[in-house]
């Protein structure tokens, strides 16, 4: 039986960079999740009788919201729901399942790399039929709807047993509980030369993959250990836990420090990697060398043709604006298109659908291709392994050769987390006010060439997205970018992105922060970060 339940709007359901993210107690307020899910459905047309994919990263409150979403999908007229066993679906696997089974769309429950638990973060995002995050047109409509919603529809049936694979019809809708790993693993086997990777591993190549007690555990176990033969224990922290074992499932040098330390140690494995809460981010570390996400994007794109799935070459490379320009040089050499988009995977969707870009990436540890419409952590790991197996060289050798051929983009991001929102907005406003006067200004050896607030003109649907980050570009190609994160859940996070291009191979051996010291100082001079935020140092440096 379907019920229509009266409700009152919440004013704070604006989707951010990647869906709605809030603390669990916020989501636990009466009808909070229901309002958002109904607002998603109310913003869509033509889904009657169609399929909806539902899954999440297993974090605290995942199962409860999945039950609500299934019952609401039934009451709203979907014909079928496909849900991952245990409520589990990594973000890239969900994207693949939406595409493979031609679903109408999908609801993914995740707050990505943010911590989980009763007082930590939760999130809901909607992906469209191409498997990618809903574009701004839809997220804007969802937000508008949340502000006026007065009722939601929900079917009245007992909770679905999510732990048994199988199909049942309930309230006129098919509910299919599926293996979350199988389809995804099969796709990876199509794209990569599993034989070559298996052979490399059998000859003693050692892998260490940290699943960070998050969703990629079951995927990595199946693919790396079972299908590729890496010894038991190569995948660690592989059980998805509702609180990620109390850690941030964020694969960066701060939260994956143990892995980093091991990879810098004496008897380090050949290849270290980690993924985040929902499996779309990646961290790549070779023996003795961390590969920045921006470099990883460039190197993967330059060598993608070594993997069977990309042997015909790639059509173009897209990167988010704050990501370093390293991949632009690869695109130039390959004679293919390069695209600069705002932060947020949703902006790559049109370029991938139109066949303009094949490989996309972001400085925030995301890389992916046209195989799905999300970034994909394990995909990046497997493409690296495929390249290593074919080239027979170490990660460090491959990186150094890449720099020698293309030049090195020294790159770092400084995050100031949990800053007072007004102070952060004030800082950005003040920067905007300075943009016109900055060009030509000299700071030590650095002269500002241009300064602007990045606006993106989508070449496919011609939409324009403004205010996507303050860029200060210096003569010679260095730059500093300032923007506020769209994924935080408390206060504001100021991100400062710092980049310097160094063509001379004799100067490729500097320590990153040292190489960027003058730019870091100029960022402080221009934005007055310390006094505006009250912080002496960044909370995280990546
Ligand atoms: C999300 C988006 C990414 C974005 C990242 C950081 O990643 O999908 O496109 O780069 O957030 O965004 P921000 O700088 O606004 O915090 P994820 O892995 O959190 O879904």
TrEMBL record:
The EC category is: isomerase
Q: Name one GO cellular component term.
A: cytosol
Note the superkingdom of the native organism: Bacteria
Q: Which residues form the Alpha-D-phosphohexomutase alpha/beta/alpha domain?
A: 13-152, 183-285, 294-406
One GO BP: carbohydrate metabolic process
For the keyword Metal-binding, the answer is yes
| UniProt catalytic activity | alpha-D-glucose 1-phosphate = alpha-D-glucose 6-phosphate
Which keywords fit this entry according to its UniProt record?
A: Isomerase, Magnesium, Metal-binding, Phosphoprotein
Q: Where is this region: Disordered?
A: 1-21
Q: Does the keyword Magnesium apply?
A: yes
- The EC number(s) given in the record are 5.4.2.2
Q: Which cofactor does it need?
A: Mg(2+)
* A GO term, aspect molecular function: magnesium ion binding
Q: Which PANTHER family match?
A: PHOSPHOGLUCOMUTASE, PHOSPHOHEXOMUTASE FAMILY MEMBER
The similarity comment for this entry is: Belongs to the phosphohexose mutase family.
Recorded protein name is: phosphoglucomutase (alpha-D-glucose-1,6-bisphosphate-dependent)
Organism the protein comes from: Metarhizobium album
Q: What is the lineage of its organism?
A: Bacteria, Pseudomonadati, Pseudomonadota, Alphaproteobacteria, Hyphomicrobiales
